[in-house]
Design goal:
The complex is a heterodimer of chains A (about 450) and B (about 600).
Chain A (H helix, E strand, L loop, with lengths): L3 E3 L2 E5 L2 E5 L8 E6 L5 E10 L2 E6 L12 E8 L1 E4 L7 E2 L16 E4 L10 E2 L4 E3 L3 H4 L4 E2 L6 E3 L5 H11 L1 E2 L6 E10 L1 H13 L6 E7 L6 H19 L3 E7 L1 H15 L12 H9 L3 E3 L5 E9 L8 H9 L2 E4 L2 H5 L12 E2 L15 H25 L6 H18 L9 H12 L12 H7 L3 H4 L1
Parallel strand pairs in A: 9-17, 14-20, 14-21, 16-17, 16-18, 18-20
Antiparallel strand pairs in A: 1-7, 2-3, 3-6, 4-5, 4-7, 5-6, 8-10, 11-19, 12-13, 12-15, 19-20, 21-22
Helix pairs in contact in A: 6-7, 9-10, 9-11, 10-11
Chain B lengths: L2 E6 L2 E5 L7 E5 L4 E9 L2 E6 L12 E7 L1 E4 L7 E2 L6 H8 L18 E5 L6 E2 L4 E6 L5 E5 L6 E6 L3 E3 L6 E5 L4 E4 L3 E4 L8 E3 L10 H6 L7 E5 L6 H11 L4 E7 L3 H10 L16 E6 L5 H19 L4 E7 L1 H14 L13 H9 L3 E4 L5 E10 L9 H9 L2 E2 L4 H5 L12 E2 L2 H11 L4 H25 L6 H18 L13 H24 L3 H4 L3 H12 L5 H27 L1
Parallel strand pairs in B: 8-21, 19-24, 19-25, 20-21, 20-22, 22-24
Antiparallel strand pairs in B: 1-2, 2-5, 3-4, 3-6, 4-5, 7-17, 9-11, 9-14, 10-13, 11-12, 13-15, 15-16, 18-23, 23-24, 25-26
Helix pairs in contact in B: 5-6, 7-8, 11-12, 11-13, 12-13, 12-15, 13-16, 15-16
Classes of the chains: A alpha/beta (about 450), B alpha+beta (about 600).
Chain lengths: ~450, ~600
C-alpha cells in the first residue's frame, strides 16, 4: 500500500485519535499527523479494523481541529535510524534531534520494538564490574549485561549515585570500548542538565547518546522513548561491539504515562489503576539488556525509579523487582543521617552476583564475607530496634557490640565520597576491619580458613 | 473466504466460517501461530502467540483442523522449547539472536534415527497405553513407545528391531471400525486435555529435594501439588532451581513462564555440568525446559503451562516419576487477565477474570500418582511459584493456590533480607502429608524422625513466643532455660534450615545427613538443658567452640562423611560433659 494522507479523524481524546474509512492499515504502523497550523506529530496504530483505526499520538491530541487534521500512514513500523554518529547527540522520544543539529544521515534503521532475544542465544552475564562503591561492589555486585535498578524516592540522591556509577564503572584489568545511552523520561530541566554537565566534566560526552523527554514535554512520548533508546543501545552493543551502560530515569513517569493511555483506551485496571499488562510492558524494556553469544558487546541496564510515597510494594517498584536481576534500594533514614550513598543493603540484592565474584573474579572470601555482613547487619538491626525500646544501656555486652557494628558499618562501609573510587580489595579489607569486631564464634558464615587469613585477631585466637 | 476484521494487540476478530472453537490457526501472510478462543456466528476470536505487528485487516487466516497439540516421543529430553513447543535452537538457526515470527519448526527432530526394540509379548489385541517397544533416549532414560490412548484394535504389523526416524511407520493397527491406523515413534496430544490413565493411586513416597527445610520440615509427596509464594528477591527461582537440580525424580520439566531470560540460560549452562546425585549422570539428560520469558508474547505464556504439563503426563504414562516446576504461575494468571480484559470480560478480583480459580485448580489436578493404562505406576508432581504483588499473600492467585496445594512453602522477605536462604518461613508454611512422608523416613532413615522433627519445630515455635517478650523487655528478663531455648532455635536455623545453594557440599543434602544434623542439634540442645538445670550460665556454654563448628558442619562434612560428622558431635557432647564435671567440681568447693 502506498502512503496516503487522510482527513477522516472522527474523535480525539487523551492522546488517541480515531480514524474512519482509511482502508486496511497494518497494526503497529507509524503515523504522521499534521494539524491545521502545519505542525507534525508522530503516532502509531494500536488497534485496526476496516472501519476504524485507533492511533496513539505521542505528542498528544491537544489543540487538534478534526476537520483540519491530516493523517498519513507510512506503511512501516516505528523505526530509528542508526549509525555511529548517534554518539554525542541528543534526541527526543521519537528519535528526532533536540540538540539543534541536523537529523542523522543513516543507511540503516531499526524497528524500535525490537524482537525478543532468544534465550538460547543469550550468554550468562558473569563479568564483575567494579563501580568503586562498597555497598554495590561488596554486597550487591553488578555484572556486565545485568539489569540492576536503583529504587529511590523523592529527594534522595539517586542521580548523583547513577552519575558516580557512570564515572567509575570499569572491568578489572581491561580498558573497554564503552558507550552510554541515557534515557530521560519526565525528569526536570535541572536533573537533565546535571547529567549533561557531569558527562561533560568527566569527558565522556562524545560516547553518550541522550534521549530526553522532560517534565513539560508530551507524556505519551515517554512510551516510545525507552524503546528508541534501547534500539540504539542494541545497535551500539551488538553491531559496534560496545559495552553499553544504559541509564533510564525515571521509570515511574514512564509507568504513569502508560496508565494515562491505558485509561483513555478503557483497559481493565489491575492495581492502583495501572493496566494488567504493566509487567509485560516493563519486561519488554528491561529484558532487552544482556549479553549474546558470539557478540562482543553487552547492554547493562541501570533504570532509576522513584517509589511513590517511599512504598516498595507500589506496583512500579514491585513489578520492576520481579523482572530485574536485583535492586539497589536507597533509604530516607540513612540519607537524613547524612550517609552518602544512602544504600540500604538489606532489601538490596544482586541476583547475578554469585557467578561474578569469588576466587577467579574478585577474591576467594568475597561471597562468604558478603553473606556474613548481611547476617550481622540484619541481627544488628534487630538489636537497634530493641535498644530503642529498652535503651542501649540495658543491652548485653554481646548486643552492644552489634550496635557498634551497625554504626561503624553505616559510617565507614556505606558512607563514601562522591569521588571516592574504592577498589574491590579495599572494600573487602574494610569489611574485615568490621568483621574483626566480633570473635570467631559469632562469624559462622565465613570459613575457618578465611578467619585465619583475614581476621585481625587471627594470630591471637588460634 | 477468511479475512481478518479487526486487530487489537494479540486478539483478532476473523471471519472464518466453519471453524471450531479451540482450533489452531495460521494468521496472515507471515503465518503467525494462533488459537481460536471464541466463536460468534461466522466470526472467530483468535489469540495470536506472536506479535501481530504489521498484520493488516483483510489478510487471510487458515484453520489447521486440530487444537493446540504437542509432539510426544524420543528427542524431548535435554531440549529447550518455547511456549508452543518450538525448539529454541531451531528458531535460533532460522532467525538468529532474536526470535523471528511465523517460523515453522517441528518439535521433534525428523532426521534423527532412533534404535527401536519391539516388545515380544505384544498383541494381537492392542489397547491405548500399551508398550510397543523401547527406545533408549539417554544413558539413563529409555522411552517406551506407547500405543496412543485413543487407539484400540488388532495389531497387523510391528516393525522389527532397528533404527527408525519419527516419520517411519512402526506399527499398523486395524481399528474396530475396520480402518487402518499407522503408528509412529511419536504421537500428538492436545495440551488442554489431560492424558487418560486407569485410576488414581495414593501418593506413597516423599519427593526428596536435598533441601533440609523442604524434605525434613515441609515434605511434598511424589504426585503432590506444591506452591512457592514469595515477594521478589525472596529466592523463589533459586528454590525452584534447587528442586530441579536435586529432586529424586526420573524426569524434571522446568517451565519458565514469564520470567527472566538469563535464568533459562543459567540452567542451560549449568545443568550439563552438574551430576544427578541419584544416577551419577549429567542432569541435562533427564531435564527439559519450556521457556516463555517475560519479553516473549503474553498469550503463549498461557499455553506454556499446558504444553509443559502434557509432556509431564506423557512421561508419567511410561511409568516415570516426573516433577514439573512452573516459574511463575502468577504470570500465567496475568496472561489470562490480559486476554480476558481484551475480550471485554467482566473482571472480578484485581482485574482477574471469574474463571481464575477454576482454571488454577483444574491445572493442579493434573498432578497425581496414577495407575497407567498399562497397569504401572507413574506420577506427576507439580510445583508452582507464585509472585504475589507487593508480597501480599491475600491476593487472588496466592490465596486460590493456597486452597489447592498440599504443600505450601511460604518465602519471607525478612529471612531473605538477613540472607537466610532458603527463606522458607516455618511459621507460614504447611505440609498436609507429613504422616505419609514419616512412613518413608522411619523405614529408610530413622525410627524417631517424626519425633525429632516435632521437637525442632516445637523449639522454633517456642522461640517465636519468647522473641515477643524479648522485643518488649530485652533478653535479660528471660530465665536461663528460656535463653538457652533461644540459642537452640538459633542453632536449628543456622545449622539446619539455612542451606547454601552455591556451596558444593551443602547444595545437596542426603536424607541420612539431614537426619544426622537434626539429631546432632537436638542432642547438643538437650545436653545444654541438663547443664542449665545444674546452674551453669548460658554465656559459659556459648564459649564452646563446638557450637560454632556445628553451625558449619553442613558444609564441612559431605554426604559420605557421616561417621566423621557423628565423631565431631560426640566430641562436642564430651566437651559439654567435661564442662559439667568442671562445674560440679568448682561449685562443690
Amino acid at each position: 500500500m502506498k502512503e496516503l494522507e487522510f482527513r477522516t479523524a472522527s474523535a480525539a481524546q487523551g492522546g488517541l485519535l480515531v480514524m474512519r474509512r482509511v482502508g486496511e492499515i497494518a497494526f503497529g504502523d507509524r503515523v504522521v499527523v499534521r494539524d491545521d497550523k502545519g505542525r507534525r506529530r508522530n503516532g502509531q496504530v494500536i488497534k485496526t479494523s476496516r472501519d476504524a483505526v485507533l492511533v496513539q499520538v505521542f505528542e498528544g491530541t491537544d489543540d487538534l481541529d478534526l476537520n483540519a487534521t491530516w493523517v498519513r500512514f507510512l506503511d512501516q513500523p516505528f523505526e530509528m535510524p542508526v549509525s555511529p554518529d548517534l554518539l554525542g547527540r541528543i534526541f527526543n522520544g521519537v528519535g528526532a534531534p533536540r540538540d539543534g543539529r541536523p537529523p542523522l544521515i543513516a543507511s540503516h534503521s531499526r524497528n524500535v520494538n525490537g524482537a525478543s532475544i532468544n534465550p538460547f542465544a543469550r550468554a550468562y552475564p558473569r563479568e564483575f564490574i567494579q563501580t568503586g562503591i562498597s555497598t554495590i561492589d561488596g554486597l550487591n555486585s553488578l555484572v556486565r549485561g545485568q539489569k540492576l535498578p536503583i529504587f529511590s524516592a523523592s529527594g534522595l540522591p539517586h542521580n548523583r549515585l547513577a552519575a558516580q556509577i557512570v564515572r567509575q564503572a570499569r572491568l578489572l584489568g581491561e580498558e573497554t570500548n564503552f558507550a552510554i545511552v541515557f534515557a530521560a523520561m519526565g525528569i526536570s530541566h535541572d536533573e537533565a542538565r546535571f547529567f549533561e554537565e557531569d558527562f561533560e566534566s568527566s569527558g565522556v560526552l562524545g560516547n553518550v547518546s541522550m534521549f530526553i523527554n522532560l517534565a513539560d514535554d508530551p507524556p505519551i512520548e515517554r512510551l516510545i522513548l525507552p524503546r528508541t533508546a534501547l534500539t540504539v543501545a542494541e545497535y551500539l552493543a551488538f553491531d559496534l561491539d560496545r559495552h553499553v551502560l544504559v541509564v533510564m530515569t525515571d521509570m515511574t513517569y514512564y509507568a504513569e504515562a502508560l496508565r494515562e493511555v491505558a485509561t483513555a483506551k478503557g483497559d481493565v485496571p489491575a492495581r492502583k489503576g495501572y493496566p494488567g499488562y504493566l509487567y509485560s510492558d516493563l519486561a519488554e524494556i528491561y529484558e532487552r539488556s544482556g549479553r549474546i553469544k558470539q557478540r562482543h558487546g553487552s547492554i547493562t541496564l541501570v533504570p532509576i525509579l522513584s517509589m511513590p510515597a517511599d512504598d516498595i510494594t507500589h506496583p512500579i517498584p514491585d513489578l520492576t523487582g520481579y523482572i530485574t536481576e536485583g535492586q539497589i534500594v536507597l533509604d530516607r533514614a540513612l540519607h537524613n543521617a547524612g550517609v552518602y550513598p544512602p544504600v540500604n543493603v538489606s532489601p538490596s540484592l544482586s541476583r547475578l552476583m554469585k557467578d561474578g565474584i569469588g576466587k577467579d573474579d574478585t577474591r576467594d572470601d568475597h561471597p562468604r564475607v558478603a553473606q556474613q555482613l548481611f547476617a550481622l547487619y540484619a541481627r544488628a538491626q534487630e538489636v537497634r530496634n530493641l535498644a530503642s525500646i529498652i535503651g542501649a544501656e540495658e543491652l548485653s555486652g554481646r548486643d552492644r557490640n552489634y550496635l557498634d557494628f551497625a554504626e561503624q558499618f553505616d559510617r565507614r562501609f556505606v558512607q563514601q565520597g562522591e569521588d571516592e573510587d574504592r577498589s574491590i580489595v579495599e572494600t573487602l579489607n574494610l569489611a574485615w576491619e568490621l568483621l574483626s569486631m566480633f570473635p570467631y564464634e559469632a562469624l559462622s558464615r565465613v570459613s575457618e580458613a578465611d578467619l585465619n587469613r583475614y581476621h585481625h585477631r587471627a594470630g591471637e585466637v588460634a | 473466504m477468511s479475512e481478518i476484521l479487526e486487530i487489537n494487540g494479540p486478539i483478532l476478530r476473523v471471519k472464518l466460517p466453519g471453524a471450531r472453537n479451540g482450533e489452531q490457526v495460521r494468521i496472515g501472510s507471515i503465518g503467525l501461530i494462533g488459537e481460536i478462543i471464541g466463536l460468534e456466528g461466522d466470526d472467530a476470536i483468535v489469540q495470536a502467540y506472536e506479535s501481530t505487528e504489521s498484520v493488516r485487516p483483510g489478510e487471510s487466516v487458515t484453520a489447521l483442523g486440530h487444537p493446540l497439540s504437542v509432539e510426544l516421543g524420543p528427542g524431548l529430553l535435554g531440549r529447550i522449547f518455547d511456549g508452543v513447543q518450538r525448539p529454541l535452537i531451531d528458531i535460533f538457526k532460522a532467525s538468529g539472536d532474536h526470535i523471528g515470527r511465523g517460523l515453522e519448526t517441528a518439535a521433534l527432530d525428523r532426521s534423527k534415527r532412533w534404535s527401536f526394540t519391539p516388545r515380544e509379548d505384544i498383541g494381537p489385541q492392542l489397547h491405548g497405553g500399551e508398550t510397543l517397544g523401547d527406545v533408549p533416549e539417554t544413558e539413563t532414560i529409555t522411552q517406551r513407545i506407547l500405543v496412543p490412548p485413543d487407539v484400540r484394535g488388532e495389531l497387523i504389523e510391528l516393525a522389527p528391531a532397528g533404527d527408525y526416524t519419527l516419520d517411519d511407520v512402526i506399527a499398523r493397527v486395524r481399528l474396530a471400525d475396520g480402518r487402518e491406523r499407522q503408528l509412529h515413534l511419536y504421537q500428538r496430544w492436545p495440551v488442554r486435555t489431560p492424558r487418560p490413565y486407569a485410576r488414581r493411586d495414593h501418593a506413597v513416597a516423599p519427593l526428596l529435594t536435598g533441601q533440609r527445610i523442604l524434605d525434613t520440615f515441609f515434605p511434598l509427596l511424589k504426585g503432590g501439588k506444591g506452591a512457592i509464594p514469595g515477594p521478589f528477591g525472596a529466592g523463589k527461582t533459586m528454590t525452584q532451581h534447587q528442586i530441579a537440580r536435586w529432586s529424586n525424580a526420573d524426569i524434571v520439566l522446568y517451565v519458565g513462564c514469564g520470567e527472566r531470560g538469563n535464568e533459562m540460560v543459567d540452567i542451560l549452562e549449568s545443568f550439563p555440568e552438574l551430576t544427578d546425585p541419584h544416577t551419577g549422570r549429567s542432569l541435562m539428560e533427564r531435564t527439559l525446559l519450556v521457556a516463555n520469558t517475560s519479553n516473549m508474547p503474553v498469550v503463549a505464556r498461557e499455553a506454556s503451562i499446558y504444553v509443559g504439563v502434557t509432556m509431564a503426563e506423557f512421561f508419567r504414562d511410561q511409568g516415570f516419576d516426573v516433577v514439573m516446576v512452573a516459574d511463575s504461575t502468577s504470570r500465567w494468571a496475568e496472561a489470562l487477565r490480559e486476554v480476558g480484559g481484551r475480550l471485554g470480560q467482566m473482571p472480578v478480583e484485581e482485574g482477574y477474570p471469574a474463571y481464575l480459580s477454576s482454571r488454577l485448580s483444574a491445572f493442579y489436578e493434573r498432578a497425581g500418582r496414577v495407575e497407567t493404562l498399562n497397569g504401572e505406576r507413574g506420577s506427576v508432581t507439580l510445583i508452582g511459584a507464585v509472585s504475589p504483588p507487593g508480597g501480599d499473600f491475600s491476593e487472588p492467585v496466592t490465596s486460590h493456590t493456597k486452597d489447592i496445594v498440599q504443600t505450601f512453602w511460604a518465602l519471607s522477605k525478612e529471612l531473605a533480607d538477613a540472607r537466610h536462604y532458603p527463606a522458607v518461613d516455618w511459621n507460614g508454611s504447611f505440609a498436609k502429608d507429613v504422616q505419609t512422608a514419616a512412613h518413608w523416613w522411619q523405614e529408610h532413615v530413622a525410627k524417631d524422625w517424626l519425633v525429632a522433627r516435632g521437637e525442632a519445630l516445637g523449639l522454633l515455635a517456642e522461640e517465636q513466643e519468647l522473641a515477643r517478650i524479648v522485643n518488649l523487655v530485652g533478653p535479660e528478663a528471660l530465665a536461663p532455660k528460656q535463653r538457652w531455648a533461644l540459642e537452640g532455635a538459633a542453632l536449628i536455623k543456622d545449622a539446619l534450615l539455612q542451606q547454601n545453594a552455591t556451596d558444593p557440599v551443602d547444595s545437596y543434602c542426603s536424607p541420612e545427613k539431614q537426619y544426622a544434623l537434626l539429631a546432632a542439634v537436638l542432642r547438643v540442645y538437650r545436653k545444654g538443658q541438663e547443664l542449665i538445670d545444674l546452674g551453669e550460665p548460658v554465656t559459659q556454654i556459648l564459649t564452646l567452640p563446638g557450637l560454632a563448628r556445628l553451625r558449619r558442619a553442613k558444609a564441612a562434612y559431605g554426604d559420605k562423611q557421616l561417621t566423621e560428622l557423628n565423631g565431631f558431635v560426640r566430641e562436642t557432647l564430651d566437651a559439654m560433659d567435661a564442662m559439667r564435671v568442671e562445674y560440679e567440681r568448682s561449685s562443690a568447693t
